[in-house]
Structures are given as C-alpha cells and as structure tokens.
Amino acid sequence: MRQRNKPWAEDMFAKNPNLVTASPSECKGKWNEVFGNTNPIHLEVGTGKGQFIIGMAKQNPDINFVGIELSASVMVSALEKLIEENITNVRLLNENAQDLTELFNENELNQIYLNFSDPWPKNRHEKRRLMYRSFLELYETVMKPECEVHFKTDNQGLFEYALHSFSNYGMVLHEVSLDLHNSDFEENIMTEYEEKFSAKGSRIYRCIAQFR
Amino acid sequence: MRQRNKPWAEDMFAKNPNLVTASPSECKGKWNEVFGNTNPIHLEVGTGKGQFIIGMAKQNPDINFVGIELSASVMVSALEKLIEENITNVRLLNENAQDLTELFNENELNQIYLNFSDPWPKNRHEKRRLMYRSFLELYETVMKPECEVHFKTDNQGLFEYALHSFSNYGMVLHEVSLDLHNSDFEENIMTEYEEKFSAKGSRIYRCIAQFR
After folding, report:
1. Domain for residue B24, yes or no?
2. What distance in Å separates the CA atoms of residue B193 and residue B28, rounded to the nearest whole number?
3. Residue B72 carries which DSSP code?
4. What is the model's pTM?
5. B156:A163 CB<8 A
6. Chain B residues close to A149, C-beta within 8 Å
7. Digit-coded pLDDT (tens) for A91-142
8. Long-range contacts of range A198-201, CB-CB < 8 Å, 24 or more positions apart?
9. Mutate which of B148, B152, B154, B176 to disrupt the A interface (most A C-beta within 10 Å)?
10. Beta-carbon-side half-sphere exposure of residue B111 (alpha carbons within 13 Å)
C-alpha cells in the first residue's frame, strides 16, 4: 500500500509509550508485565490502520493484543484510533515480523492473526509471504503448543498457497470458509481493506491453521 | 442422483466380463494380471456415467483405470461408452467404496480420484462423505506410500470439509484451486456433472491430498 510519508509519526509514537512500545526487545518474556495482567496475548502480524485489532480488543477485553506493523506512516493511523477510543489492551510495535523471536519468548503468545497479507504473487518472492515455512517456524516458536494462526484474505492465489504451506508444515485446518461473508461466522471483525473490497464484491477466504 | 431403474444393466455387465469385473474380490492382489501388464493402477471412486475415467484412459494409455460405482443403472452408461470407444485400460466394478480393502491388496493402487462426490451436508451423515477419516484409512491402505487423492467438486461445503479432513489426517495439500476453470490446469477432464454445472456458472474446486 502506497502511503503518504508522515514525518510526525515517530514523534507521535514517542509521545505515547503506553501504546507504542519503543524498545520491544526489552519486553521479551515480560509482556504480561507490560500489560499488567496475566491475560492471554494475541498478535496481529501486519496491523495496518488498526481497525481489526481495535475491534478485537473491544470485543475481547480479557485478551491482550499486540499489533506489529512495518510502516510507521500506516501504524500512526492505528495509534490515533487507540487514543481516540481510549483502548488499554493493545500495544503497537513498529517492527519487522522477521524479528518475532527477538520480541517474544518461546510460548509467550496464544494466537496469531494474519489479515490480508501482501500476496507477493511472484514465485521468486515466495519467502516473503507470511505463511512461508520460515514464518511458520517463527510463529510456532513464540506461541504455546497447539495454538492457532487465524488467516483471512481476498487473494485467491495467496489462500491456495497458504493451504499448501500450512498442510505441508503439518498444521490442521479448521473453520475453512471459501466465502466468509456468506458463512455463519458472526463474530467477524473487518479490516479496512476487507470492508472496501468485500463491498466491491470480492470473496473473502478464511481458515484457522493449528500447530500440533 | 435419481436414475431410472435399468433392469437390463446386470445382464449387460454379465455379457462384458472383460470390462465389468463380476467377482472383483477374486482379483484382489492380481489386478496387474487382470489388465495383462504392470502399468500403474488408478481408481475413481464414484465413476458415475464414466466420462471422466474414459477421458483419462484415452489421455493416459499407459495407466490402468478402475472405476467403482454403487449404482448399476448409472454404471451401465459408462459401460456403453467403453464398448463404443473400444477402451481396453478400464475396468468397472459395481461395488461399494466401503469394501475397498476386500477388492485391492495393500499398496496395489497408485492414485485415487474423487469427483463431485455426494456432499452429505447434514452433520449426522459426515461418516458417509468419501473424505471422512475412515475412507482415508481405506485409501491409504490400498495405495502405495506417499500416493495422492485427486479431488474436485462444485460443493463449497464439501470442499471446506475435505480441506479440514485431509489436513487433520496429516495429508499435504497440493495444487489447490478455488476456481479450476479459470486456472492454468490445462489437462482437466470434465465429468458429466462438471460440464453441466460449470456451464451454469458454478465454481469448481480442486486439490490433491498426498499421504505421507
């Protein structure tokens, strides 16, 4: 997604240390202390403008949410929403998903969400897809045993790839939906992208992939 | 599929013992002798009127095909086509898929096709679906190690179920296509049902599930 550069983003992050964790690697193994409770911790990889994670945080006040987003200019929109809605069970990290094991201890997370991830459609970019084997290894490391990755996308090719990659890793697929918005999944929280593209008629695909 | 009763079907089977194997359990472990060669053997479960298996047999003369079909009145149409086209690498069995291990030895088959299988949509009928765990156990028994089940359907619910069941069994998914007729899979042989429903605009789903 091409975004306007927002030079004030970094300043705004620094002014909200209770919402944007500046040195997350120092929190590794101590995220329960950061949140001040022992609630489960769910991670969204690629939080974007934050509509999903904030909707989830409001729907699930007894769960802590961490959103990781590479683009500062995009993440600042999520921060603005957090401030506006006075949300306390979310932390944002302006980091790269490749560094997950520097940010979280083994078994520190309970669930991971991948929403409308970049499809990287060219074969030579396969390793950049967030369901590529090396990313699954990272997720398995930082999550407790038998935990789940919740994935949705409107990109048919990426969903087909993900089904292969998850099953090849030995994960079990649950709640596969090939048309989420015409399914009986009622608690769906939409991302900004999902609202826009489903309104244009795109099918939304979803599945849960569980480690074992 | 509701079919007219065809009382002459049994007679026609009996008159064509080179195409319809009357006592297939006697062939168990000897299918290479039945075909008179050592070519690989592929099985279609639910052959219907035979368009798929006959198309495959013509496309792949070095593979032997066995089609199993419970309904004699449906299978007789496949037999008529076999006779008309003078096909020699197909055998039809008017049998129940639940009896596979009485018909084939361990490791006797090289591939299995499930095409537009009955979806049995009610939860209480899950065990009748041809990708239910007990059927996968039968397929794994009669196939060589690491062999594949090739599955296609227009039924979204059945495909979603199949992805769960295959992955839960530990199988790896390959060539997942969520819109087969708009994919780059060029060697597709259509079933009668597939021709009819894809012409009406139904999406066709396909995947390969490999044992390991």
Report:
1. no
2. 31
3. H
4. 0.94
5. no
6. none
7. 999 999 999 999 999 999 999 999 999 999 999 999 999 999 999 999 999 9
8. A198/A154
9. B176
10. 13
Q: Which domain holds residue A61?
A: 47-95
The pLDDT assigned to A7 comes to: 80
- ipTM score: 0.93
Domain end: A66, A95, A124, which one?
A95
> What was the pLDDT predicted at A54?
98
Burial of B103 (0-12, 13-18, 19+ CB in 10 A): buried
pLDDT score, position A6: 78
A156 lies within 8 A of chain B by CB:
yes
In the Cβ-directed half-sphere of A170, how many Cα atoms lie within 13 Å?
6
**pLDDT in the model for residue B6:** 77
Do the Cβ atoms of A178 and B159 come within 8 Å? yes
Residue B163 and residue A179: Cβ atoms within 8 Å?
A: no
Could you tell me the pLDDT band of residue A69, with boundaries at 50, 70 and 90? very high
Claim to verify: residue B90 and residue B131 sit in the same structural domain: no
B182 reaches A (C-beta below 8 A):
no
